[in-house]
Specification:
Homodimer. Helices cover 38% and strands 19% of the residues. The chain is α/β, with parallel strands linked by helices. A six-stranded parallel β-sheet has the order 1-4-3-2-5-6, with helices on both faces. Bound molecules: adenosine-5'-triphosphate, pantoate and beta-alanine (BAL).
Amino acid sequence: MTIPVIAQLDELRSTVAAWRADGQRIALVPTMGALHQGHLDLVRRAGELAERVVVSVFVNPTQFAPTEDFGRYPRDLERDYAALSGTAVSALYAPTAQDMYGPNFSTKISLEGPALGLESITRPHFFAGVALVVTKLFNRCAPDVALFGEKDYQQLKVISRMTKDLDLPVEIIGVPTTREADGLALSSRNVYLSEEERAVAPRLHMALQDLAQVVSRGDPIAAAVAQAREALAAAGFDVDYVEVRDAETLEAVEAHDRPLRVLAAAKLGTTRLIDNIAVPRA
Ligand SMILES: Nc1ncnc2c1ncn2[C@@H]1O[C@H](COP(=O)(O)OP(=O)(O)OP(=O)(O)O)[C@@H](O)[C@H]1O
Ligand SMILES: CC(C)(CO)[C@@H](O)C(=O)[O-]
Ligand code: BAL
């Protein structure tokens, strides 16, 4: 079956309105394209939750700093279209930047709580851009549910918080991280890795697994984090952060007295990788 590719907002709205008039539930899977199995797992879960699934593909300029990879971010809508064939998708929504951010666009969303720290340390612009585009996508598509990957755990928590705080009528669903056989989290940016860097990349996940085990035993968190940072540096990573946080609020913690998440970001050469896992219950 051919998947409709929608670029115009009025077409998206009329398509969604027709489904809704038919009593069908709608799921939205926001992406920046360069689709991989992690995205397809979100689409599969979306198909279990709603009769209609919209996948948006939009490389959102407002979440990139001028120094980041907006220009070279992989873009191939034909390949994305082919990747979606045979999945639960009902429409591919691919707006232009001019349509999303028209002339004189001047609205910003200010975030605190789970948006503080972690990714915001090196990407202070990032969550404001994500929040803006996600809110606009929700308003445009009016989904019943929207799905986000745990790979971007802080993003998932920021969007969940914002959705609650602003009474957005959407249920947010987090989907577990899809990994390569060696543990590396699938990510569109993995294509930037050289062969040598790709061989080292799974060490990020290994360091988080070790850290989570040590924390789960009840060892002091600060020492365990320092050890993980050292292991990553020794493997050739330039570490942005390694942290242990409250799994729900992402607040800093000092002891394993509630559900925790370990999160890290580190560069291999020019490629920035992120990952996170739950700390097993003691
Ligand atoms: N390995 C994965 N497992 C589960 N969800 C994922 C995975 N990779 C990406 N996602 C989710 O897919 C959605 C779209 O992400 P995006 O298009 O930025 O892909 P990405 O692989 O995360 O790209 P990037 O390398 O730019 O971070 C997000 O909700 C993201 O968390
Ligand atoms: C949620 C998102 C599609 C917003 O641009 C992006 O941050 C992503 O792909 O994770
Ligand atoms: N995967 C989240 C989007 C970003 O890192 O730019």
